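Protein Record: Sequence and Backbone Structure Tokens
======================================================

Structure line: whole-number tokens from a learned vocabulary of local backbone shapes, matched to residues.

Purpose: to set a sequence beside its fold so the mapping can be learned.

___
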Amino acid sequence: MMLRKGKKWLWGLNIIGMVLLMTLPLEAAHAMVLPILWFLQVHRWADLVSKEKSHQMHYFIFSSFKPVQRLLSSQWLAAYAIAVALALPLVLRFAMAGDLFSVATILTGALFIIALSSFLGIVTEGKRLFEILFFFITYLNVNGAPFTDYFGAINQSTGYLMILLIATVALVTLSFLFRQWELKRI
């Protein structure tokens, strides 16, 4: 369902972005094309966990069997699969070049942005905050701000990757905890 969401012409832009990830120099593709390509998915990821509330279906959906373990996990898996599939040309190029650190940062960055979307969607029960924040993060990434580099294009240190991993695990944990707390309130 996430693949069908949105306009068909947007998939044309996604394919162009993937071709650019294959053809541009690695640094330019990693620093410029990847954040823009992922930003094009903002409409898919913004309401990843909040569309139930906006469509007034949360009572029905939350009554399913193990909604946190099954539903939230499947939403995350679908969003993460799209993020990794879009970045796959770049991941394969880094893997063939033997730069496994960049592969790890891209895969961690994909999980981080999905976790951020999920956390903000659950906490705010909407999608606007994530859309605004993701726009600013992407803008700052394209302009080379090192403190917003969630996919390892600017900061190539192991310490920064560890901070990103800790932040990702924290967002994942908080998302699950807040969703469970939300289910107990209903």
In short: The mean pLDDT is 85.
